[in-house]
Amino acid sequence: MTPSLLYAFAGVALCGIGLFGFLRLQHLLRKLMAFNLIGSGVFLVMVGLAQRNGQPDPVPQALVLTGIVVAIAATALAVVLIRRYYHLSGQTTLAEPAAKSARPKARSVNREGAPE
Amino acid sequence: MSRFLGITVLAAVCLVFAGALMITVWQIAGTQAPVDLPGLLADNLEASGVEHPITAVLLNFRSYDTLLEIGVLVIAGIAGISMANTASLEDPELRTSDSLLYALQRWFVPLMLVLAGYLLWAGSDRPGGAFQAGAVLAASGVMMRLGGIPMEFLRPGVLLRLGLALGFSVFLLVAVVSAMAGDAFLAYPDAFTKPLILIIETVLTFSIAMVLLALFVSAPVNGAEEPEEGESG
């Protein structure tokens, strides 16, 4: 049990927490954050596992760096999509359309971009 | 009651998943690595043109990953922009009138630009590089945006398209030219390794900052609360 292995296990724990949040939470932004938590866990596992003899391995670190940048871009795109979805449907969850009529705050769809 | 049951089942599933992952990690940590990657890297660092191992991996040994990565970024940026309303790009409600922000901006924006340049240069022999520099550049852009400094190049147009595509196209150009010259795809010629990496890093920095900033700006703002949008824009 080396300190670097501790990082890997912390990453595993993050993956578990993230998975729970991803399955359990309804709000799309929270789902996104939980998904990012899983991603961070994977990065931590990769970086932690790759330190074999106390020496960090640059190859997985470079891969993780690439992964972080892609994750940022994907997260930003997801936020844009979620905002658009909220803009169009007025809801923040992926509920069934039947459940939407029960909500008092449901908005009309054709409001998008119309100057009023 | 069924809700509790659901949470319990969910927690059990997640615990089983984490447990399996933990056992796998433990087993992997126990086995010996089949290849000595750090050793291989240290042996070939001389030929890479840069002194820092991570930069060498990113831009020389595994530059294919980096090429695909900037491709993914460009696609994400284009998709994000296409989601946006043109009106909301110039949304006046995004601007704050916080005097503290204005005061900070005057100090921070030049400092952050210098820091981005330093990070870009530092990537050759110590931690740093295109992505960190691009992130800092994008952050200073976000700050300028919040302060209401007009940034014409973010409007959909030639400059935005050029900025988004610059990094990817220069990278691809280098890759294809080296392949045309009879070498492998993405193999830099020996004499120009360092200048080529420097050029690629610089254009990558600009493109990454541009993509991140465009994604920040393009998120369709307000209008969710109020119907009118871009009235005085």
Beta-strand residue fraction of chain B: under 5%
At the third CATH level, what is the topology name of chain A? Helix Hairpins
* Count of discrete structural domains of chain A: 1
Alpha-carbon distance between the two ends of chain B: 53 Å
The largest sheet of chain B, given as strand count, sense and whether it forms a barrel, is: none
Portion of residues within helices of chain A: 55-70%
Report on this model:
The complex is a heterodimer of chains A (116) and B (233). With 116 residues, chain A is mostly helical. Chain A has one domain: Helix Hairpins, CATH 1.10.287.3510. Helix content of chain A is 69%, strand content 0%. The N and C termini of chain A lie far apart (64 Å). In chain A, 32% of the residues are buried. With 233 residues, chain B is an all-alpha fold. Chain B has one domain. The longest helix of chain B is centred in the first third of the chain and has 29 residues, at 2-30. The termini of chain B are far apart. Residues 222-233 of chain B have low confidence and may be disordered. Classes of the chains: A mainly alpha (116), B mainly alpha (233). At the A-B interface, helix 1 and helix 3 of A face helix 1, helix 2, helix 3, helix 4 and helix 9 of B.
Write a concise synopsis of the structure shown.
The complex is a heterodimer of chains A (116) and B (233). Chain A has helices at residues 3-24, 28-49, 58-89, 97-100. Chain A has 116 residues and is an all-alpha fold.
